[in-house]
Amino acid sequence: MKRTLKLLLALAFVGIFCVTPVMAATSQGLVWGIDDGDQFNFQMTLTGAEQEEDVNEGIYMEVLDTETIPNVLTTWDDMPEVDLDILWENGTSMGFAVLIFLGIAATGERLAVPTGNYTLLTELLLDKYSNLTMSENSAYWEMTATYENELLNQTGSVAVSYLKEDGFLARYSITLANETHTLSDISVIRDGLPSDIIVLLQDNILIIGGGIAVIVILGAVVCKRR
User: Fold this and answer.
1) How far is CA 47 from CA 38, 56, 60, in A?
2) Of 47, 85, 86, 141, which has the fewest beta carbons less than 10 angstroms from its beta carbon?
C-alpha cells in the first residue's frame, strides 16, 4: 500500500513538469494563438485575363519564432512580427513567387496577429491605415483596402482575413479589374477553415436559440390546452 502511494505521488510530481505551459495574456488581453513549429497549408490560385494560364498550387507556412508581445500596445507598429517560412507544398523555397504577399503591406504587414482583443487591434490598425474597411464575425477578423487608377481606368483591392481562434492568416486575395473584366485575381486560402454554414450558425446562435425556445413554449402551451 505504501509503495503504491509513493508511486502515485512520484507520478503526480513528474506530471507537473509534463503539463504544457499556458502563455499568459498581456494586460490588454493579447496572447499568441500559435506556437513555434506550427504549420498551415494553403491553396494558391492565380486567374484573370492577363494570365496566360491559371495557376493552382499548394503552399505552407511554418511558424519559426513568436516574439514577446509588449504588455501595453499603443500603436500598430509596436506589435511584434512572427518569423515564418513560406514554402511550396513539396518543401522547396517559393523564391520570387513569395512577392505575391506584398499586398499585405496595404493591410497591416502581418501574416499573424495576437488573439484575445480584436477590438483593440481594430483601433490600432485604423489609426495607421484609415482607408481600410473592417469587418468581423464569430470566426474571422477581416479588412479590405481598395484603390483606383483613373489613368488606366482600373480598380484594385486587397482583402485579408485572420482566423480568430489562432490569429493566423485565413484568406488573402488581390484583385485587379477594369470596367469590363477581371485582369488578375490572386487568392490564397487556408485549408481546414470552418464552413460558411457553421459560421452563420455561430453568428446567429442567439436568434436560433430564441426561436427554438419560442417553439418549445408554444408547443407546451398547445399541449396544455389539449
Assistant:
1) 29, 9, 20
2) 85
